[in-house]
């Protein structure tokens, strides 16, 4: 997919960039495509396991409200851990005043989900759950699927994702939200989790055994959150290893139990999350979910895009 050059501003609100070569590869690729990448010095910033002190990482986000010229894209370097420490001190009002309704896209996933959901809850600010600098743009082999879906979501006022799933019949609509399941579960009972009614909840995770995923989903169920949703869509759940002890207990067992207990339709198989291939989802957008047999379609609209104008030279 051919796109106009964009102004991309990096932020590092979570873990230390332990693979600076991959980060630099991502920067080089973006620049080779004509994009302007700024704030690159943060890829070498470190304090303990974090990408800088709490105040430095907090400033990455809060300073967006004070930039003289807004970038087209704000791109997280990587996930890890650290975003949760920042949530009480984010300047939600200033960020809302500066960013809401503006053609700027905040992009990332994994640990960044905490900031994305907090901004949605406290500032009504939409963002994009999608690729990050190091793991995606800096991968040894860049995924054309990921790249095409990234630009599709950021530049299209309406678009539809299609994939194959377990056969069923379903037609529903609601607010699209979700992201990394561990981060969603960690926000339960806090002001940082948006109260989404009639939602289509899309979830993914990495390095989590099926029983841990089940436990987090049961927490969402028993806290009343799933009762307010219209459907659950599962993305990629990678990096886990089953053993003989599991005796056939796998993710399909988890999905079956959660569907039974929640009464919600559960649609599997979306390429979304920590895998090599991932779609990009605008959190807080409007979505229509239709499944006809094994053909699933998610039509998305109502989100702010970066528009069609190229970056000024």
Automatic annotation (TrEMBL):
<feature type="active site" description="Nucleophile">
    <location>
        <position position="110"/>
    </location>
</feature>
<feature type="active site" description="Charge relay system">
    <location>
        <position position="274"/>
    </location>
</feature>
<keyword id="KW-0121">Carboxypeptidase</keyword>
<feature type="domain" description="LD-carboxypeptidase N-terminal">
    <location>
        <begin position="8"/>
        <end position="130"/>
    </location>
</feature>
<dbReference type="InterPro" id="IPR040921">
    <property type="entry name" value="Peptidase_S66C"/>
</dbReference>
<dbReference type="InterPro" id="IPR027461">
    <property type="entry name" value="Carboxypeptidase_A_C_sf"/>
</dbReference>
<dbReference type="InterPro" id="IPR003507">
    <property type="entry name" value="S66_fam"/>
</dbReference>
<keyword id="KW-0720">Serine protease</keyword>
<dbReference type="GO" id="GO:0008236">
    <property type="term" value="F:serine-type peptidase activity"/>
</dbReference>
<dbReference type="Pfam" id="PF02016">
    <property type="entry name" value="Peptidase_S66"/>
</dbReference>
<dbReference type="InterPro" id="IPR029062">
    <property type="entry name" value="Class_I_gatase-like"/>
</dbReference>
<keyword id="KW-0645">Protease</keyword>
<dbReference type="GO" id="GO:0004180">
    <property type="term" value="F:carboxypeptidase activity"/>
</dbReference>
<protein>
    <submittedName>
        <fullName>Muramoyltetrapeptide carboxypeptidase</fullName>
    </submittedName>
</protein>
<dbReference type="InterPro" id="IPR040449">
    <property type="entry name" value="Peptidase_S66_N"/>
</dbReference>
<feature type="active site" description="Charge relay system">
    <location>
        <position position="204"/>
    </location>
</feature>
<dbReference type="InterPro" id="IPR027478">
    <property type="entry name" value="LdcA_N"/>
</dbReference>
<feature type="domain" description="LD-carboxypeptidase C-terminal">
    <location>
        <begin position="173"/>
        <end position="289"/>
    </location>
</feature>
<dbReference type="GO" id="GO:0006508">
    <property type="term" value="P:proteolysis"/>
</dbReference>
<keyword id="KW-0378">Hydrolase</keyword>
<comment type="similarity">
    <text>Belongs to the peptidase S66 family.</text>
</comment>
<dbReference type="Pfam" id="PF17676">
    <property type="entry name" value="Peptidase_S66C"/>
</dbReference>
């Amino acid at each position: 997919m051919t796109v106009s050059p964009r102004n991309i501003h990096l932020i590092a609100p979570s873990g230390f960039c332990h693979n600076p070569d991959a980060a630099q590869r991502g920067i080089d690729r973006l620049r080779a495509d004509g994009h302007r990448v700024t704030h690159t010095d943060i890829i070498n910033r470190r304090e303990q396991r974090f990408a800088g002190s709490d105040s430095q990482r907090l400033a990455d986000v809060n300073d967006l409200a004070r930039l003289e010229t807004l970038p087209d894209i704000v791109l997280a370097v990587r996930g890890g851990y650290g975003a949760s420490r920042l949530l009480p001190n984010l300047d939600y009002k200033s960020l809302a005043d500066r960013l809401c309704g503006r053609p700027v896209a905040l992009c990332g996933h994994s640990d960044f989900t905490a900031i994305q959901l907090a901004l949605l809850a406290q500032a009504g600010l939409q963002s994009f759950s999608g690729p990050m600098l190091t793991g995606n743009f800096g991968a040894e082999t860049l995924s054309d699927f990921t790249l095409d879906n990234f630009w599709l979501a950021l530049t299209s006022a309406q678009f539809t994702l299609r994939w194959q799933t377990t056969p069923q019949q379903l037609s529903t609509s609601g607010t699209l939200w979700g992201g990394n399941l561990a981060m969603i579960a960690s926000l339960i009972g806090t002001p940082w989790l948006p109260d989404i009614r009639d939602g289509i909840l899309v979830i993914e995770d990495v390095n989590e055994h099926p029983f841990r995923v089940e436990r987090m989903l049961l927490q969402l169920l028993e806290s009343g959150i799933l009762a307010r949703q219209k459907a659950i869509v599962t993305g990629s759940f990678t990096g886990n290893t089953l053993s003989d002890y599991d005796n056939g207990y796998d993710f399909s067992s988890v999905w079956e139990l959660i569907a039974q207990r929640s009464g919600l339709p559960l649609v599997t198989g979306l390429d979304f999350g920590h895998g090599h291939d991932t779609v990009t989802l605008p959190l807080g957008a409007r979505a229509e979910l239709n499944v006809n047999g094994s053909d699933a379609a998610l039509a998305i609209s109502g989100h702010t895009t970066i528009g069609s104008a190229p970056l000024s030279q």
